[in-house]
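From the shared-data thread, chain only:
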Amino acid sequence: MTHIDEAPTPTGAVPRATAPPQGREKKLSGRDRLVVITMVTVPLALVLWLVWVPALGSVVLSFGKWNGFGDLDTIEWVGFQNYEDIVTIYPPFWPAIQHNLIWLGFLFLFPTVLGMLLAVVLDREMRGSRFYQTAFYMPVVLSLALIGFIWQLFYSRDQGLINDVFGTQIDWYGDPDINLWAVLVATAWRHTGYIMLIYLAGLKGVDASLREAAAVDGAGEVKTFFHVIFPVMRPINMVVIVIVVIESLRAFDLVWVINKGRNGLEVIGALVAQNVIGEATRYGFGSALAVIMMLISSVFITIYLRNVFREERRG
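Structure, as tokens:
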């Protein structure tokens, strides 16, 4: 509402309207304030209880030895001994690090690139594109554990499709020389559709005038994508990088249902489960492994958030 200045005005002059004072904010009613407080505190409490409390608890337990039985007073505090034992005398640790790095490199080089290529092709609104999108995205809704069972139909030594077609007797899941690569192929089946959907959504948001300007300048489709479209999708690229890194570090479900992360399928996530819920029940040792995995993940997440905040300041 505007306010009418009641100061005297010359005859025939129209009263001057003044704007309301700046800086005043409308006060919330008691009910609205309660709703806002509830919407903030309930998610915050859940995040603290389900994320931060277990994370900090793992950090604390990583400095002690505890088998999970008895009170917390029975914890034997050993300082950094768990971390020292992990990197020096725990045989599966360094193979697990190597396998996670292979997992990371494989996801970057194959399913990520393939997903991006599929997104570019399907973005052309070709005939049947909706069917292909659904077909490629279907594995994403399945859990990795279920995917492991599905691919058993292909990899089984006695009844698998691959061995039946080629007349071989290869134990794809049991042979430690090849089971990691067999698992990575099954993972790629799911990961490709996920990356395709992310890039497809990003391509839909690209300004069409950029493509038109590149076409006017005589640039082909390949040159337009790599020199115009791909740089514009930098936020999408950063999201994909973080997703790939996290997926490679939290690789667990698939290897656990196959052989519980042993015999050539050692990954950090499986080592944590083996020590926390396995036969050993070494909560301190398993927590130290979890902290190492969390620290590695935090490095990439910090880089991503730094880039996000930098882009916001530039904007």
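The chain has one domain: 81-314.
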